[in-house]
Automatic annotation (TrEMBL):
SUPFAM superfamilies: Cytochrome c oxidase subunit h (SSF47694). The keyword Disulfide bond applies. Its main location: mitochondrion. Coiled coil: none annotated. PROSITE patterns: CHCH. This is Cytochrome c oxidase subunit 6B1. CDD domains: Cyt_c_Oxidase_VIb. Keywords: Disulfide bond, Mitochondrion. It comes from Microctonus aethiopoides.
Length: 95
């Protein structure tokens, strides 16, 4: 089993990882943002989630796609800041 201190070996398979990590996936490639810097991608997915959840409700399945995307792409500090701005009414985008 792989632990945080296990040295990397390219021959590891998914069976070598602990259960919570076996099905982890990253956000798929978005051709609208082909560059390495994913800031705009993070921002757009956050805004799309906020708009979707406002119209459809946070539990709506399609909204969860945007939530998963921004949770993967955005640093936690940014998400906290965005949430604080929305709560304070100072978010720089119309939701």
């Amino acid at each position: 089993m792989i632990t945080p201190n296990t040295p990397w070996n390219p021959k590891y398979t998914s069976a070598d990882f602990p259960e919570p990590y076996k099905n982890m996936k990253t956000h798929p490639f978005d051709p609208r943002y082909p560059n390495t810097n994913q800031t705009k991608n993070c921002w757009q997915n956050y805004v799309d989630f906020q708009r979707c959840s406002k119209v459809r409700g946070e539990d709506y399945e399609a909204c969860q796609y945007f939530k998963k995307a921004y949770r993967i792409l955005c640093p936690n500090e940014w998400i906290e800041k965005f949430d604080d701005q929305i709560a304070a009414g100072t978010f720089p985008m119309k939701i």
